[in-house]
Amino acid sequence: MFTGLVEEVGLLTSVESGEMLRLNISADRVTADTRAGDSVSVNGACLTVGEVDGTTLTFFAMPETLRRTALGGLREGSAVNLERAMASGDRFGGHIVQGHVDGIGEVLRVRPEGEAEIWEFRAPEAVLRYCVEKGSICVDGISLTLVSVGADTFTVSILPQTRANTNLGELRVGDTVNLEADVIGKYVERLLEPRVTERLS
Fold first, then answer.
1. CA angle, 104 as apex, 11 and 179 as ends, to 5°?
2. What is the Cα–Cα distance from 15 to 18, expressed in whole angstroms?
3. CA 122 → CA 80, 93, 152, distances in Å?
4. What is the mean pLDDT of the chain?
5. Model's pTM, two decimal places?
6. CA 109 from chain center: how many Å?
7. Which of 9, 119, 127, 161 has the least CB density, counted as fewest CB within 10 Å?
8. Closest CA to 84 of 14, 139, 152, 32
9. Please, where are the H alpha helices in the chain?
10. How sure is the predictor about 87, in pLDDT bands with cuts at 50, 70 and 90?
């Protein structure tokens, strides 16, 4: 489990294609106590560490992961958001993030609002159905609060600190991002399904 609080922005030093995509990511803080087999959120996708070599982490993304996420669009030199799995007893500053990407979003526009910025993303219905104003959403591994929700879009407000300490500063209009909806909404829907079916029958 993760919190959506990015620990470090890593640098994708190389991408190697094959049966699985091999991602080599350079990082300083996250590599300190990380071992092969550990789970790390890479742009919001929970990946297993394959190898650790000094300050380089190696991950292998299987075809299913590439179908479900925007990781396949990463290139050498890309900045990626990293977060280690939450340790027992740590402060919970974001929201419950599983690292299970629900859909791929697209940056539509960015506009200033005082010292902050309003970012608008296009998102699939599979994500938007769980979005509510002032609720939580995970964008490329970043826990954010929803400002508004439209028919096929949503907006969030980004503080300068968030922009400076995540990969948001590298994103441009048209870029794709990984989206994960708040898991609480999914469980509520699942629990209510039998009652709704019962009433309709």
1. 75
2. 10
3. 20, 26, 6
4. 93
5. 0.92
6. 19
7. 161
8. 32
9. 63-68, 125-128, 160-164, 183-200
10. confident
